[in-house]
């Protein structure tokens, strides 16, 4: 397996298996890759290894960022070497059966679909050859695993979208997407936590504040949790929106 030209590949222990593939990424990051597909088992492994690394309390590790099938380890090169981190990853592999990850939660997110809250709903319906009510039914009938949080604080990348709703992202991204907007891009769905640019197809909006630094836990969910969408009407949306501000 080859590496990108701007990275350096390292073996993990003496293993000959394809994964993990460990690469130096920049001068303060080690990137461990455990696969190249959206796979719940691989994602759970990444999540467990991240927990094990946190438990090590290594002063040289500044941040551990799990994603779909990769784990980024940001470190202080004055306190820990690449070789030590690589060995630590190998040790974590040996402890996987001994770690109990936090129990995944199912977070219910109310969504008002369509209208001004979902400007791309009609396009999604046409592309899917479904009426809008069926798009809403299919989108809200699944339970989605949070594979990663990124792009913006609190933006969750969700797997498990009904295949009939897969649609390419916009050719030209919007310069403004309102906070709480629920979108679809390819085989994924997700929620914009803040006002931002974005190229996903917007089909609805939640009244919930997804990320707030004033809360003890700023984000409503964590990677590994699941999301269930609950359709609500505009009146309920407005009542919930105002209720949060009281």
In percent, how much strand structure appears in the residues? 25-35%
Mean pLDDT: 88
Order of helices and strands: EEEHEEHEHHEEEEEEEEH
End-to-end C-alpha gap: 56 Å
Structure commentary:
This protein is an alpha+beta fold. It folds into 2 domains: 8-98, Gyrase A, domain 2 (2-Layer Sandwich), CATH 3.30.1360; 106-244, Beta Barrel (Cyclophilin), CATH 2.40.100. The chain has 5 helices and 14 strands. The strands form 3 sheets. A 7-stranded mixed beta barrel has the order 6-13-10-11-8-7-14. The chain has a 5-stranded antiparallel β-sheet with strand order 1-2-3-5-4, with helices on one face. Strands 9-12 form a two-stranded antiparallel ribbon. The chain is elongated, with a radius of gyration of 20 Å. It starts with 7 loop residues before the first strand and ends with a helix. The relative contact order is 0.14.
């Amino acid at each position: 397996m080859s590496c990108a030209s701007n990275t350096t590949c390292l073996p993990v222990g003496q293993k000959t298996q394809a994964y993990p593939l460990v690469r130096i990424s920049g001068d303060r990051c080690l990137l461990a890759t455990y696969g190249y597909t959206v796979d719940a088992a691989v994602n759970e492994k990444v999540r467990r290894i991240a927990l094990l690394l946190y438990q090590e309390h290594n002063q040289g590790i500044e941040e551990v960022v799990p994603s779909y099938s990769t784990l980024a380890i940001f470190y202080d090169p004055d306190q820990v070497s690449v070789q030590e981190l690589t060995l630590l990853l190998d040790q974590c592999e040996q402890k996987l059966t001994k770690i109990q990850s936090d129990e995944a939660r199912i977070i219910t997110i109310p969504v008002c679909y369509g209208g001004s809250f979902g400007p791309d709903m009609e396009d999604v319906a046409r592309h899917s050859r479904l009426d809008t009510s069926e798009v809403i039914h299919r989108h809200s009938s699944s339970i989605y695993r949070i594979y990663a949080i990124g792009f913006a604080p609190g933006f969750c990348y969700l797997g498990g979208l009904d295949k009939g709703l897969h649609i390419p992202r916009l050719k030209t991204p919007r310069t403004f997407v309102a906070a709480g907007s629920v979108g679809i891009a390819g085989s994924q769905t997700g929620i914009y936590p803040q006002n931002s640019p974005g190229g996903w197809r917007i089909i609805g909006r939640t009244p919930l504040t997804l990320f707030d630094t004033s809360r003890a836990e700023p984000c409503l969910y964590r990677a590994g949790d699941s999301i269930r969408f609950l359709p609500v009407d505009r009146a309920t949306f407005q009542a919930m929106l105002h209720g949060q501000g009281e």
